[in-house]
Amino acid sequence: xxHALIFDLDGTLVDSLDGIAAxxxxxxxxxxxxxxxxxxxxxxxxxxxxxxxxxxxPADADDALFHTLxxxxxxxxxxxxxxxxxxxxxxxxxxxxxxDRGYLLAVLSNKPHPFTATIVAQIFPTIRFAMVxxxxxxxxxxxxxxxxxxxxxxLHLSPSDCxxxxxxxxxxxxxxxxxxxxxAVTWGFHDRARLIAAGADHLVDEPAALSDLLE
Length: 215
Known about the structure:
The chain has helices at 17-30, 38-42, 49-56, 63-80, 91-100, 113-123, 146-154, 169-178, 192-197, 207-214; strands at 4-7, 14-15, 86-87, 104-112, 131-135, 162-166, 181-185, 202-204. The chain is of the alpha/beta class. The longest helix has 18 residues, at 63-80.
């Protein structure tokens, strides 16, 4: 029986923290606003670009400033993301092994869809993803299960035949909301204690352990 593995992108497949932090700080500095440390930005990531901007902007920022910052962030990120985005060590070989073993592979991210599709295509050119979905207008972002269920339906699978793999509590909530198994990885942006508290079915510390778990 076929089984789908639905991966988060940022913090799960790719380490994108440096690129996101640089573009956020570029946008803030261009508006004369304080910037943030790499570690602070780490805690802003996971809910999409709009929430990233709201977390990084001053507390008294108005809607006009939010729109200005988001546009500046996206414009800079579109040009600079390759210099701050890399696959985590061992992920490409893991994905190649999983596809050879017959798993259907998919990506579901809260990153805007154009960025998601471009990054996946360029970072993982040898992987045949069955579906790649980023945040799209009119579609609620994770932890709403709409995207995950869309993947299952398109691949003609029941939710119980799908596993969501991610680094954040958002991914675990998405899996639970969709009726899918949840696997948390600890090499991303949320720490182990938060992942355990969020109810991960399994917790893995390195790609090799994920491969063994799925064996």
